[in-house]
Design brief:
The complex is a heterodimer of chains A (about 240) and B (about 260). Chain A has two domains: about 5-90 and about 205-245, Rossmann fold, CATH 3.40.50.300; about 110-200, no CATH class. With about 240 residues, chain A is of the alpha/beta class. Chain A contains nine helices and nine strands. Chain B is mainly alpha-helical. Chain B has one domain (about 1-255). Chain B starts with a helix and ends with a helix. Classes of the chains: A alpha/beta (about 240), B mainly alpha (about 260).
Chain lengths: ~240, ~260
Amino acid sequence: MARIDLQNVSLRYPLYGETTKSMRVVLAGLVTGKRAENHPIYVEALKDISINLSEGSRLGLIGANGAGKSSLLRLMAGIFQPNSGTVRREGHIVTMFDLSYGMDEEANGFENIDIVSVVLGISRFDLDRIKNDVAEFSELGEALHRPIKTYSAGMRVRLAFGLLSSMSAEILLIDEIIGVGDASFMKKASARISKQIQEAKIFVLASHAESVLRDFCTTGLVMSEGKAVFHGPIEDALKFYNSRG
Amino acid sequence: MLNITRILSSEWCRWARLGWLDIQSRYRRTTFGPMWIVLLTGMTVGSIGFVYGSLFKAPIKDFLPFLAIGFVTWGWISSSLVEAGECFSAYKSMMLNHVLSPSSVLVRVVFRNWLVLLHNALVIVALLFILQRPLSLVTLLVVPGMLVVGGVIFSTSIIVAFACARFRDLKQVLASALSLGLLITPVIWSPEILKDRIYVAYLNPFSHLLDLIRLPLLAVTPSATNWAVAFGTLLICSMVARIVITRYRHLVIFWL
């Protein structure tokens, strides 16, 4: 049983600027007895959002840059905790927010699959299958035996995407990664990700590409300045978003 | 509750493995690999031992093992803390992409440095063997000693990591404090040379931690004071670490 329930969730986080981050200011405040200038600026990332996702949900997050799409995804994943409201989730989550991280430049492709699979929590039992799968999909061939510092940007994406998309997920959260690589890779990638999306019980995608949203999502959530301003069928959501200009 | 413990322990195991992969990656394409750790420590201990042994007019047979154990243990403590201070910024992208307990990041750093310690321990073992130092049952006390010191390192690392993430200045303070610590802690010099002011050395909790590891290896039983201070430090540090982690673990991501 997979589900994500957000109930009146708000996220507000402190932003430590030049004046507030430095210890000098804190110390100066202690010495002089003044406590001014030490209040961080708060970013209101999400405001009072409620949404229930159950098995079969395919949700597209729509909104301008900085509307809170990525924050909402991270909150759904459990990486961010809300300041108020409740989040309940059940099911194994796989996130695709950034493609390459935790990779070691000096290590070769296979070794990097080892490293990232430890981060992702892939059991050693599955590792061989996944390695074969990634090798076949990425078409990197011999290059997998070379250090990844010799890889082009596109090759890195193939490796990282191949690995992340080989994971089976009950809940799949994707942030704007579709649209990388060359044309033939894109075709292959979208076929592969479609399979992963179909297998997921809950799927949430933040994207600006309307065609991608139409292809994969059934409902849409339009966000603006941290608030959910529209929630409904994907076509209506896109219409609503476009009519706002 | 049981479930949380299970998830956390599997996460800790995975991140410990990442610590081992870090060691491999650090020495990739070098001829001696991680043996470089041993070589460098051997050279440092050899040269400091030669110069300071003459300065203190200490017999080489006593001074070299004393210095090697002190130096290696201090290196363990200080490099763990320095790396802990940087670890949240270093692994920021992972923390932004995975549901991760901040303690797991520290497990990686602490375990990695413990592996370095095991490499360095070869220098100590070699010295004890070459100089034919007597070993006895007392030597086994090094195991509980290492556990206590390891516990202090882990809990202090948690505090340091959070503090350095919040206040960027602390990273600089930490580095200077640790290099000062090397001088004011009996790492290179023996507390005995302070004669009637020996208490100056033992005001410093690090001296007691060092003794827990150093004395057993030199076939001396650590004093009750050593144990008491070390356990006290462990208790206080782990309590503070617990408070820090429960209060700030969801906030630390926004400090980076």
